[in-house]
């Protein structure tokens, strides 16, 4: 079931370790949290080749797709509706570390079913909070039940990094 996110949290608690090291989180009278009110689509996730697979796809096939595209997660769909997500961690912890044959295992047996997701117009800070709280590295973006994108912690890190670099350039 998709996650429901309320009001955006204050920026300082989310980044308190940075504050303790003396970095200012205010840039042009705007906190980092405020600058992250960018919408997931198109502000954070711009052009993206989304890889969608049915749940009967083999782990070996998905692993090869992930390696070819240099991505860490693939969304699993049924008739266009998001039903799961399979990540590098799933492949490692549920298949490889158990000495299972990746060609004989379907992603439907190792994926995370009914993953949390956010709509395209959600704020980046909403995604960051959900990913932080639940220790996700990838979060599906859905329009209704249809998968339309995926945001990674790396995508959100880039937004924060760009903000801090702009602040440094003006200092």
List the helices and strands and how they pair.
Layout: H1 11-14, H2 16-20, E1 26-27, E2 30-31, H3 32-35, H4 40-44, E3 52-53, H5 59-69, E4 73-78, E5 81-87, H6 88-94, E6 112-113, H7 124-134, E7 138-143, E8 146-152, H8 153-170
Parallel strand pairs: 3-4
Antiparallel strand pairs: 1-2, 4-5, 5-6, 7-8
Describe the protein's architecture and organization:
The protein is an alpha+beta fold and 171 residues long. 38% of the residues lie in helices and 20% in strands. The strands form 3 sheets. Strands 3-4-5-6 form a 4-stranded mixed beta sheet. A two-stranded antiparallel ribbon has the order 1-2. It has a two-stranded antiparallel sheet with strand order 7-8. Strand 7 (138-143) and strand 8 (146-152) form a beta hairpin. The longest helix is centred in the last third of the chain and has 18 residues, at 153-170. The chain is globular, with a radius of gyration of 18 Å. It starts with 10 loop residues before the first helix and ends with a helix. The model is unreliable at 1-29 (pLDDT under 50).
The CATH topology label is CBS-domain
Portion in helices: 25-40%
Uncertain regions spanning at least 5 consecutive residues: 1-29
Total helical elements: 8
CATH superfamily: CBS-domain
Overall strand count: 8
The assigned structural class equals alpha+beta
Run of helices and strands: HHEEHHEHEEHEHEEH
User: Based on CA inertia axes, which overall geometry fits?
Assistant: globular
The N- to C-terminal Cα distance equals 44 Å
Biggest sheet strand line-up: 3-4-5-6
């Amino acid at each position: 079931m998709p996650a429901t996110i309320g009001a955006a949290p204050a920026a300082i608690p989310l980044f308190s370790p940075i504050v303790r090291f003396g970095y200012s989180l205010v840039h042009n009278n705007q906190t980092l949290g405020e600058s992250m009110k960018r919408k997931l689509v198109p502000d954070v996730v711009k052009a993206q080749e989304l890889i969608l697979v049915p749940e009967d796809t083999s782990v070996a096939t998905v692993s090869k797709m992930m390696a070819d595209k240099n991505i860490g997660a693939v969304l699993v769909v049924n008739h266009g509706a998001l039903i799961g997500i399979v990540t590098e961690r799933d492949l490692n912890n549920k298949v490889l570390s158990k000495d299972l044959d990746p060609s004989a295992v379907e992603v439907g047996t190792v994926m995370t079913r009914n993953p949390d997701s956010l709509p395209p117009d959600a704020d980046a800070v909403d995604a960051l909070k959900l990913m932080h709280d639940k220790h996700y590295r990838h979060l599906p973006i859905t329009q209704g039940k249809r998968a339309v994108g995926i945001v990674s912690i790396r995508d959100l890190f880039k937004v924060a990094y760009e903000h801090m670099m702009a602040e440094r350039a003006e200092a």
